[in-house]
Amino acid sequence: VRDMDKRFNFIDLFRGWAVIIMVETHALNAWMDAGFRNSDWFSYLNFVNGFVAPSFLFVSGVSFALGLHLKSDSLSHWTPAVFRQLRRLVMIMGIGYMLHIPRFDLDAGFPFLKTEDLAEFFLSDVLHTIALSLIILQVLLLLMRSPRKFAIGVAILSVMALFGTPHLWRLEFGQYLHPAFANYLNGMHNPLFPLFPWCIFAWAGAVTGVLFFRNLGTSGEAIIIQRILQFGVVIFVLAFFSDRSPITLFSYDNFWLTSPNWVLMRLGVLMILFGFFWLLDVKQWHTSKFVLFIGGQSLFIYIVHLTVIYTFTGHKATFPLLEPHWSPVFATLFFVILLFSVYGLTKGWVLAKKRFFPKKSY
């Protein structure tokens, strides 16, 4: 039986590798010459990189289910734990906005916000979508109370979002809503991560987590992992061949953005990875402290690596030293340097927190 007080290594392994690939994705996008994007090898790398955001969302849903498993009573009723949870999620959403905060124009003698930056400020990034998806889960949990009813409700909500996304993306919400709200509902003016369809990965992660943690430490733990793996393979295969079928089950405008088939194919891979990392943990085949640490500090690393990259890169850079014209070899070298630099900064941050803000014991 697992120790309920310790972190679950396979969750941090999953998230840790997602963080590493995320840093690689942003580093190469920022520093590698665009001409190399037409190479055959880059198409394969880009395919792998495309699973970073779904992985973060999926694991965030699993982590929500873990919290429910450990603190079911306190999270399913209005308690201080719920307020702490909501406060943390609002903070994550606030961090998302801070990472896109507009620049100030000082030429007029008074710091005015640059209006051309406001459009980007109101875009929904992955942190916004994670936070809002989990807030919706928390509200649903307060309504459903029991984990079983909660999982059923989330599953129904996920199916509705899956098949509703193509229709939502055809609506011009900007006619009725401010961009701060409209951009959450579809990608018509939001090229980043609108709530739909990205929330589906977080919600599916929550359902997967509830099913898994209900069987944790019992003879059914390995069985439920087999079921999750089988379901992942089935939905991937069905979605893959359904899109190539002459029979059209549903319409969509863009396979890569709104297609239920593409969402299900991604979700199938995520469920397979969930079982894969569980196996690595149980068999102790992969116990890298480096990856585990990165997975446990993903939010701080997300903030720091983006801050570092865009402090030195792009038209908004404070110190524009690195431009996107490097070869894959040099861009990869910069990525490795960035990864270990961020790792060192994170280590320092964790040590500083332990020294200056020690956790109180009651």
Describe this structure in words.
The protein has 362 residues and is mainly α. It is built from 16 helices and two strands. The chain has helices at residues 9-31, 40-49, 52-70, 72-75, 80-98, 118-121, 126-144, 147-168, 179-185, 195-214, 220-242, 255-258, 260-283, 289-296, 298-312, 328-356; strands at residues 104-105, 112-113. The protein has a two-stranded antiparallel sheet. A hairpin with a 6-residue loop joins β1 (104-105) and β2 (112-113). α3 (52-70) runs parallel beside α7, α3 (52-70) crosses α10 and α15 packs across α16. It is globular and about 60 Å long. The chain starts with 8 loop residues before the first helix and ends in a 6-residue tail after the last helix. Mean pLDDT is 90; it is low at 1-6.
What descriptors fit this protein?
362 residues, mainly alpha, two-stranded antiparallel sheet, globular, disordered N terminus
Instruction: Please tally the β strands and state the result.
Output: 2
Q: Tell me the span between the first and last alpha carbons.
A: 26 Å
- Please state the structural category: mainly alpha
How many distinct helices? 16
Strand content: under 5%
**Averaged pLDDT:** 90
- Low-pLDDT runs of 5+ residues are 1-6
N-to-C series of helices and strands:
HHHHHEEHHHHHHHHHHH
Q: Strands of the largest sheet, in order across it? A: 1-2
Major beta sheet summary? 2 strands, antiparallel
Task: Classify the helix fraction into a percent range.
Answer: 55-70%
- Shape descriptor reads globular
Nearest-angstrom radius of gyration?
21 Å
